[in-house]
Structure formats: C-alpha cells, structure tokens
Amino acid sequence: MLSAWNKSNNIASKRMIATTHTSGHLETRQYNEANEEARRLGIADSFWLGCTSAFTKNMDLVLLFLILFFGGKLAFGSPKFVHKNLGSMPFGTLVKFQLYW
Length: 101
Known about the structure:
Blueprint: H1 2-17, H2 25-75, H3 91-100
Helix pairs in contact: 1-2, 2-3
C-alpha cells in the first residue's frame, strides 16, 4: 500500500515538473490509477488487520476462560481434577499466575 502511494506521489511530482504546454492527461490517468490501487490495497490491509485482531482477542478470551476454569478446579480441589502426586493448587497461586500471565 505504501509503495502504491509512493508511486502516485512520484507521478504527481512529475506532473508539477512537466511544462505547461503538455496536456497532462496521461499523468492524471496514471495518478488516478495509482491512487485507486493504493485505496484498494489499504482496504485489504485494514480488513486483514481487523480479522487478525478479532482472532487474537477471542483466543485471549478463550485462554483466560480455560485458565480460570481448570485452575479454579485445581484451587478449590475438585476431586476429578486433583492429581494424586501434585495435590491441589493454592488459590493465591492461581491469582498470582493470572495477574502476571
């Protein structure tokens, strides 16, 4: 996208340098085409940025839920989730992990 804007700015600067007796229709058309390409690439870039941002925020929410769900089961000592060798997790450890995660 930035390279397309750079291209349109180069065309615009050539247009300013051109002599006054040329019509400039070619430069104007090239400038409009380059700006249209920059706009199209900008739309695609913002779409994919939005998709990536939504995906990462949702994954963060899912991981937060899983950590609190399974960590809460360990902290409150549900017999199904307590491992015989590890015992249960203290509640303060779960809070500390969640705060510094």
